[in-house]
Amino acid sequence: MNIVENLKMAASTLTSNKLRSSLTMLGIVIGNASVIALVGIGQGAQKLAKEQFESLGPNVLFVVPGSQEERRTSFDLPKTLVWEDADAIAQQVPSVTEVAPQINGNQLITYRSRNNNKLVIGTTPEFLSVRSFEVAVGRFINENDLKRNNRVVVLGSEIAEQFFLQTNPIGKQIRIKNISFEVIGVMESKGSFLGSNQDDSVYIPLTTMSNQIVGNTSPYGTQVSFIAISAKDENSIRAAKFQIENLLRLRHKITDSDDFGVQTQKDILTIVGTVTNGLTFLLAAVAGISLLVGGIGVMNIMLVSVRERTQEIGLRKAIGAREKDILGQFLIEAIILSATGGVIGTLIGVGTILIVGAFSPLAATVSPVAIVMAVSVSGGIGLFFGVFPARSAAKLDPIVALRSI
């Protein structure tokens, strides 16, 4: 019997048991759809994280307080990084162009009857260029604001909309920690960064933040949350990191482990890439289990089919069908079930990715590699799990099979 006849017979058998065939394919469908969708979403998350870090600027470095071990295990970091460190970096490190220290803290913001806890960032004029932010309306903090401890504030775009609706906020007074501040500007929309909404913050002079909002919390100077630094160019990043580390070790009189960390955009991207790759692999592995379960389902149904069709097998062998003909027929049935389930699962998986991409910030992408692997695996599973029932059918003794008629 040739392959065309086997295909026709397999198709006829499967279509005559539509419900059983559909339920058999269900595990394969779910497995394929899960693998393709989860891999696509994982790659989308990785791409989104990369784009967000690139939006910081190509030559940005961050100096953060605390040793690597303390940052990993403690929520209360030591108060070792100060504004004076930022000034020293700006003046003594030749491979950097601008330095923007900042103090972060959540505070109650009030305007008339509206109030909410928002992130307040005390910073310097260099913040705009170092962090690639822009002002939409009004102006940003300047040197006079820093020198005079001016009570001025620049609003994030979402806060401006929440508190002032459609009115112009410039010149209005808001209260931060029950202290009155004049609105001098509104930032351009920047979007979210690793789950943190950058448009939901307000910016005030670093001196005002230190002296009037949080107070002086370090015995070594004006404590800062971290320092953002812009290197001259991409080729200067490594030199800037080396020079900053050496300078801070001298300033902090470090003889053992560092009480600070210097992270480049590339360092952070590597960490994020490792995490997202691991999560994507884990999700794909979990989804792959359903493919295995679907393959076992195919084998179970094919064994049941062999038992139900014992008479048919005996009759075919009695009139001249060879073992390889019977083997081929049952293998083709198993492969058709798995391949059809793979195609349907692929379509569902791709559709899920497109829906996620349309209704979320994830730039979910369809991975051709994942599609090829999922369909190949599902077809291979059909072949692998179909071998045992097919061999069982091929090995049936025609005399024994005909006795059951």
From TrEMBL:
GO terms for cellular component: plasma membrane. The chain crosses the membrane at residues 21-42, 281-306, 326-359, 365-388. It is a multi-pass membrane protein. Its main location: membrane. InterPro entries: ABC3_permease_C (IPR003838), MacB_PCD (IPR025857), Macrolide_Exporter_MacB (IPR050250). Residues 21-247 form the MacB-like periplasmic core domain. Signal peptide: none annotated. This is Uncharacterized protein. Residues 285-398 form the ABC3 transporter permease C-terminal domain. It comes from the Bacteria. Keywords: Cell membrane, Membrane, Transmembrane, Transmembrane helix. One of its GO terms (molecular function) is transmembrane transporter activity. Pfam families: FtsX (PF02687), MacB_PCD (PF12704). It is found in: Cell membrane. Belongs to the ABC-4 integral membrane protein family.
